[in-house]
């Protein structure tokens, strides 16, 4: 069925920018909302096996929720577009064309998810659109050379599209006037039960990855690309998260759970999340080589989310499709360089069902 697009005011930023919430829906099947503050994915309502629509992504009921101090102090990036670079960077620096770029540390001495004021905190221009089989919105932002000390002015477009089958796509397009680096992602937190007082430990998870990136004590890749065989990171068959996550394994101790990049074998249906209770299922395809899987280990009931609920440890799971973290310091990883004559492109698709 052809989806419907609506929009409404979601709030004002302290600087007075009016933020719009765009909603794409197919009645009874799916309702997706996104806003132009941080090009953020705020809501996803999908039915359980009895047709009951519930919201399955963490977020806030109003813009003010996203601006509250208690939330910002905990660096959770709920539903945000992350840029320029997802994840952490070794020693907060990288080298390019004989120059060293020092990046500001925003969390415990580390540069995380774009820095002090990443793309998650920017007001983006919005262009809603309708075609004959889809609706969506394209968000645009110009990241000037020198922003967070990165070189090159980047023009970035993030497009959310819902098609007539109920498939949601997030696509990225970017160009730069100078050689630079880029590795954006989306930071949605999923809990398919639709009940954010529950954890995601009962969810089944599959990821078509034979390898993953072990981390050092600072949650940065060691550089090793290790086999998942015989480790808690082997989700090559759908497996309930609670079992591997409680095993004793030095890699699970570092982040208090999974917070690791999985190296994808192939792009199609390469990750599945399934909630046996509600029957809700998410299938993901991506053009990116990796998924940073983060099991909400640092959520700690620190702020109020939707319906006044606080979000505790493992309330949700993030599936951040991207190039590998810290690629700028690992020439052996797929490159995140963006040359002036190039167009950066990336696509991730989500298909939802209930069984
Ligand atoms: C990172 C985590 C971080 C979380 C929230 C994830 O992408 O891998 O280490 O705590 O984002 O900022």
UniProtKB/TrEMBL annotation:
GO cellular component term, pick one: cytoplasm
Cofactor field: Ca(2+)
Residues that, per the record, bind beta-D-galactose: 187-189, 259
Pathway linked to the protein: Carbohydrate metabolism; hexose metabolism
Annotated EC: 5.1.3.3
Xref: NCBIfam families: PRK11055.1
Protein name: Aldose 1-epimerase
The organism of origin for this protein: Aquiflexum gelatinilyticum
């Amino acid at each position: 069925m052809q989806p419907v697009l609506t929009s409404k005011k979601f709030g004002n930023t302290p600087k007075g920018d009016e933020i719009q919430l765009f909603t794409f829906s197919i009645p009874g099947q799916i309702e997706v909302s996104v806003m132009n503050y941080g090009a953020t994915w705020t809501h996803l309502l999908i039915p359980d096996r009895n047709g009951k629509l519930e919201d399955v992504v963490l977020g806030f009921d109003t813009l003010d929720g996203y601006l509250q101090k208690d939330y910002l102090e905990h660096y959770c990036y709920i539903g945000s577009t992350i840029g320029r670079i997802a994840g952490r960077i070794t020693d907060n620096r990288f080298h390019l064309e004989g120059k060293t770029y020092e990046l500001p540390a925003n969390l415990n001495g580390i540069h995380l998810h774009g820095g002090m004021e990443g793309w998650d905190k920017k007001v983006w221009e919005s262009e809603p659109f309708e075609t004959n089989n889809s609706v969506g919105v394209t968000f645009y932002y110009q990241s000037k050379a020198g922003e967070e000390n990165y070189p090159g002015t980047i023009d970035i477009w993030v497009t959310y599209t819902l098609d007539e089958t109920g498939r949601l796509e997030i696509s990225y397009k970017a160009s730069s006037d100078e050689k630079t680096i880029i590795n954006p992602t989306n930071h949605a937190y999923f809990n398919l039960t639709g009940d954010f007082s529950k954890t995601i430990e009962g969810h089944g998870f599959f990821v078509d990855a034979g390898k993953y990136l072990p981390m050092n004590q600072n949650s940065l890749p060691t550089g090793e690309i290790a086999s998942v065989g015989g480790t808690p990171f082997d989700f090559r068959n759908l497996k309930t998260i609670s079992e591997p996550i409680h095993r004793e394994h030095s890699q699970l101790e570092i982040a208090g759970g999974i917070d690791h990049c999985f190296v994808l074998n192939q792009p199609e249906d390469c990750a599945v999340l399934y909630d046996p209770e509600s029957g809700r299922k998410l299938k993901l395809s991506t053009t990116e080589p990796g998924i940073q899987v983060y099991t909400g280990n640092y959520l700690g009931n620190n702020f109020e989310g939707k319906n006044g609920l606080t979000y505790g440890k493992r309330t949700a799971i993030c599936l951040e499709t991207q190039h590998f973290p810290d690629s700028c310091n690992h020439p052996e990883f797929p490159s995140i360089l963006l040359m002036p004559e190039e167009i950066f492109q990336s696509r991730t698709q989500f298909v939802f069902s209930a069984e």
